[in-house]
Amino acid sequence: MARYRFRLQTLRRLREIHRDEQRGRLATAYEAERILQHQRDGLAAEAAQHLENQRRAMREGPIDVNWMLTTQRYQLALEAQAKVLAEQAAKLAEEVERRRVALVEADREVRVLDKLEERQRAQHKIGAVRAEIGRASCR
Fold it and tell me: Average pLDDT for residues 76-105, to the nearest whole number?
């Protein structure tokens, strides 16, 4: 029986490499998302702590107006930074989705070739069995 050889093996290998690259790109985007979320959590904790410090200072007695203005400016800066991080998170979510779709497509392309090879391998096996049966019946 002749040995089976998938003629599109090189193409499948190239598609597998492309799929693996897409996986790496998606993993990088997920890592960026995780880092950004960590920054957002840290900023939220800092803003909450700052607000608690303001409240405590107000309860304790007379308030220095300059200190109060400075803390309000700092609070506004924290809010602006939170807004920037939220915008970055939205853009990053879009990029993650693009990369996820690209990975799904690359994976589909590999699976198409896998199924084609399975069908061709089965046809080859059937052909070999038929040839063997034909030789056996001629004897």
Answer: 97
Under 8 Å between Cβ of 73 and 119: no
Which H or E run includes 128? helix 65-138
> What are the residues whose beta carbons fall under 8 Å from the beta carbon of 110, sequence distance 6 or more?
12, 15, 16, 19
- Taking the C-alpha atoms of residue 72 and residue 63, their distance in angstroms, rounded to an integer, is 13
Based on C-alpha coordinates, what's the Rg of the chain? 31
Compute the distance between CA of residue 108 and CA of residue 45 in angstroms, rounded to an integer.
Answer: 43
The model's pTM: 0.78
CB 79 within 8 A of CB 40: no
- Rounded distance, CA 113 to CA 13, Å? 10
- Give the long-range contacts of residues 83-90, CB within 8 A, separation 24 or more: 85/36, 85/39, 85/40, 85/43, 86/40, 88/36, 89/33, 89/36, 89/37, 89/40
Quote the CA–CA distance of 3 and 124 in Å, as a whole number.
Answer: 9
Read off the amino acid at residue 132. Answer: E
- Segment 2-19 shows an average pLDDT of 93
